[in-house]
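Pilot study result, target chain (154 residues):
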Amino acid sequence: MGPDDLLTVGEVAHRSGFATSALRYYERETLISATRTAGGQRRYERSVLRRLAFIRAARNIGLSLEEVREALDTLPGSRTPTKADWARLSRAWSARLDEQIRALRALREGLDSCIGCGCLSLRRCAISNPSDVAGTRGVGAVYLPRRLTDEQRH
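Predicted structure:
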C-alpha cells in the first residue's frame, strides 16, 4: 500500500460525514485506527470508511459504543473486512430492529394518551395514571415502550 492509498483526517471526515473530532474520539476508543506520518499527522486506510459506515448504522439502531466495539473486534485484523463479514455482523440487528419497530408502533398508537410522565395535566392522565401511580415505576415517561426510553441510547 502506497502513501496515495492513505487518507488524511480531513478526507475521511469529508467522505464519512463524521467530524474530525469524532474520528479522533473513535480512534481513542479503538473503534478505528490510523498511522502517523513522520510529522505526526494521521493517515487512515480506505477501509476505515467501511468501519465508520458500520459505526453510524449501528449507532442509528441503538447499539452502544461497547456493543459496536465488540462487533468490530470480531473482524479480521489481517485483511479488509468483506461483504460476508459485514453481513454476519448485521444479521444480529434484525431482532433489534423488529423490537424498535414494535416500540415505535406502540408509541404512535399511544401518542394521544397518558405516557406516565407524572404531569397529570391531561384529563386522560387521571384515568391512565390516577394519583401518579406511574411515578412508582421509575423516572420519565414510564408508559413508553422500553426500547424508546432505554438510557443507553442517549
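One observation from the pilot: The mean pLDDT is 83. A full batch analysis is planned for the follow-on phase.
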